[in-house]
Structure to design on (105 residues):
């Protein structure tokens, strides 16, 4: 009986080892297939990239345009600007205040 049990365990052990070996071989085959597909994909990308050609050269930046100052009085029909009216005196709740003369000029 002990010998039969031992033989059964040995045969089960061998079956498990065969299954593991088979699974490892399948996994290796899948990895090799995936690697092959990747190489094919990469070689196609490299081919497309070389067919695309070189990058177009960038254009130099345009020079700055000089600011043109306008003289409004020269224009035909220009209206002469009138000076802005003086500000109304500032008041508080109780009294009116006037700014010093040095600020009025």
């Amino acid at each position: 009986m002990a010998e039969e049990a031992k033989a059964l365990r040995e045969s089960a052990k061998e079956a498990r080892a065969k299954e593991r070996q088979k699974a490892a071989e399948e996994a290796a085959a899948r990895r090799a297939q995936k690697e092959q597909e990747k190489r094919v994909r990469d070689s196609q990308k490299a081919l497309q990239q070389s067919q695309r050609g070189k990058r177009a050269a960038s254009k130099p930046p345009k020079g700055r345009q000089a600011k043109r100052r306008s003289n409004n009085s020269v224009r035909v029909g220009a209206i002469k600007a009138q000076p802005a009216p003086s500000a109304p005196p500032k008041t508080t709740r109780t009294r009116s205040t006037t700014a010093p003369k040095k600020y009025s000029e």
The two ends are 124 Å apart (CA to CA). The first strand starts at residue 90 and ends at 91. The mean pLDDT is 80.
